């Protein structure tokens, strides 16, 4: 089962694209190391305080895929410098 997740986030303390990318790099690296998922910034690359992440997980069954994606969201929420605003799930 393939699960696709999009989440829009706000990085309030970022004062430049460099600061934004530093925060995102930490989050994306940790997600890839900890979970069996693929992650990329898919929108708002040129805005300082806004981003949209695309996360994909592929497993044998839907419950395992959903569990991986939920763990990924919990990890994103654990970073105090970023706030998740809009999240959507899709199944393929």
Automatic annotation (TrEMBL):
It comes from the Bacteria. This is DUF503 family protein. SUPFAM superfamilies: Hypothetical protein TT1725. The lineage of its organism: Bacteria, Bacillati, Bacillota, Bacilli, Bacillales. It comes from Anoxybacteroides rupiense.
């Amino acid at each position: 089962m393939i699960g696709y997740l999009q989440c829009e986030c706000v990085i309030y303390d970022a004062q430049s694209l460099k600061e934004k990318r530093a925060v995102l790099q930490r989050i994306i690296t940790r997600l890839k190391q900890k979970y069996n998922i693929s992650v990329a910034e898919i929108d708002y690359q040129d805005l300082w305080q806004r981003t949209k992440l695309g996360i994909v997980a592929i497993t044998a069954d839907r419950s395992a895929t959903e569990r991986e994606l939920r763990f990924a969201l919990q990890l994103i929420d654990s970073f105090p410098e970023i706030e998740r605003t809009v999240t959507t799930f899709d199944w393929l």
